[in-house]
Specification:
single chain; about 300 residues; mainly beta; 4-stranded antiparallel β-sheet; rod-shaped
């Protein structure tokens, strides 16, 4: 027969080979002796058994956690004995990484949602945690910044900016505008959703809009547009033809402005007899041809 004293006050073990689980991470004196089939007992041998502590995994992550944005994970795991040498990360999106460093790192989620992130650790003593450390990481959707570019001339009272930004879930709570007009001083910025701005010089400008949601996620858009001149000159050229009663009359746009582009034309085909009837084109360009069939 084989006898084992595990040194922790629990019942003795038996068998030529045995296993035992210790509850505490300390040193124990284990003893072993045998009895022959003649009833003789052997001497007792003893050895010191050092039980190392299990590592305790833990981590934090940065907030806000937004779609397409780096999320920084910071390891805060500890161990009472030895050193942690391996970190096994399950990011909850099907990706599992085994890292050999506990340094902070970044990770990107391309889809909004809630991810169950798990961390397990292993020490240089070969000890592994029993259960992983688990946290829910909520990734909020990235908003889409947008606005309607103003069609504005220098003589206009102001340029009207109209916000068209959107977000899949949550709400947009902040609008930060930069009108690209530093000469206007403190009037160059606004926090209104649909702000006006007065430009005092013709030229090309870049307006920037930064939006922020209630979850702290942001997006930026910065398109360019033109503040057109204040001296438009309406003009057109009749295209040659026989001008028959059953055929259309064609004219070619020749309107100009002292800077920028003509953004709208109104064509009065019979200004003498029908001065309130006109055709509007919001997308004119030099040389564009218009046709009209008179009754």
């Amino acid at each position: 027969a084989w006898f084992w004293d595990f040194g922790d006050g629990t019942a003795n073990g038996s068998g030529q080979t045995t296993t035992h689980t210790y509850a505490n991470a300390i040193s124990y004196t284990a003893k072993h002796w045998i009895r022959t089939d003649k009833g003789c007992l052997s001497d007792t041998t003893s050895q010191t058994v050092v039980i190392n502590a299990l590592p305790v995994p833990s981590f934090t992550f940065t907030s806000p956690a937004c779609q397409f944005k780096n999320v920084t994970f910071t390891n805060t795991s500890t161990t009472a004995t030895g050193n942690i040498i391996k970190w096994i990360w399950d990011f909850g999106d099907g990706n599992i990484d085994t890292l050999l460093s506990g340094a902070p790192f970044t990770y990107v989620y391309n889809t909004a949602g809630t991810y169950i992130v798990k961390l397990s650790t292993e020490t240089d003593k070969g000890c592994k945690n029993v259960l992983p450390f688990v946290q829910n990481v909520v990734i909020s959707p990235k908003p889409a910044a947008g606005f309607i570019l103003p069609e504005v001339c220098l003589s206009d009272a102001f340029a009207q900016f109209i916000d068209t930004s959107s977000v899949v879930s949550g709400n947009i709570t902040n609008w930060a505008w930069d009108f690209g007009d530093p000469a206007s001083g403190g009037f160059n910025t606004s926090v209104l959703q649909n702000p006006p701005h007065r430009y005092n010089a013709i030229g090309n400008y870049t307006a920037t809009l930064i939006i922020t949601t209630n979850n702290g996620c942001r997006d930026t858009i910065a398109p360019s547009f033109t503040v057109n001149g204040d001296i438009p000159v309406a003009n057109f050229n009749p295209l040659p033809g026989d001008f028959c009663a059953n055929d259309s009359v064609a004219i070619q746009n020749a309107s100009t402005v002292n800077f920028g582009n003509v953004t709208k034309v109104d064509i009065y085909w019979d200004n003498a007899n029908a001065p309130t009837v006109f055709e509007t084109d919001d997308f004119p360009f030099s040389g564009k041809i218009y046709k009209h069939l008179y009754p």
